[in-house]
Amino acid sequence: MIIKHLSKRAQIDETTYVAPNATICGDVKIGKNCRIMHGTALIAEGGKIEIGDSCIIFENAVIRSTPKHSARIGSNVVIGPGAHVVGCIIHDNVFVATHASIFHGAELKSGSEVRINGVVHLKTILDENETVPIGWIAVGNPAQILPPDKHEEIWAIQKELNFTDTVYGVSRDTGDSTMPQITKMLSEYLGDHFDDKVIED
């Protein structure tokens, strides 16, 4: 399903296959010889999504952009089933495995790999040919790659990255009003979807 959002519609090279139940919404550009498989969602909400040539996006992966964070994916990239990729840069020849998560402002340099259930956190830079092992978390710049049982060490770095301010423009220090502010802002900008139009081929 191709959806026009904020007056923008996808540009998809004619050599690219898009499964009939994939969803492509908004300002999305997809290069040559890509395969966008079943259940995938490419949702550009304010920012752009750009995908290079010969990329494989497997079933039920989600790639999103936001007004503050576009998503740019190079060529010869594989994104595995159920992966979540938002507002980041992925260079050429990168492998993002099943159920991995790549967050806003992150950058995965050429030849890097994020294995099953791996996480590359907010504003984290993964160097060329670097690997995040199964279930591990990369956080910071330069990236520290830590196992999930090192929560305190992860949080010490992550806290300084200031997720709520970076992603939502809301300070974590606003106490009980933090989540109401976030949901109000999200409701307003996601409300733009009321005006979406499905493009009939």
Verbal overview:
- The protein is α/β, with parallel strands linked by helices.
- It has 3 helices and 24 strands.
- The longest helix is centred in the last third of the chain and has 13 residues, at 178-190.
- The model has no long low-confidence stretch (mean pLDDT 94).
Strand sequence of the main sheet, in spatial order?
A: 23-22-19-16-13-10-7-4-1-24
Largest sheet composition: 10 strands, mixed
H-E order: EEEEEEEEEEEEEEEEEEEEEEEHHHE
Q: List how many beta strands DSSP finds.
A: 24
Q: Over the alpha carbons, how many angstroms does the gyration radius reach?
A: 17 Å
Helical residue percent band: 10-25%
Note the total helix count: 3
Mean pLDDT: 94
Strand content: 25-35%
Poorly predicted regions:
none
Structural class: alpha/beta
General shape: globular
Cα-to-Cα separation, first versus last residue = 9 Å
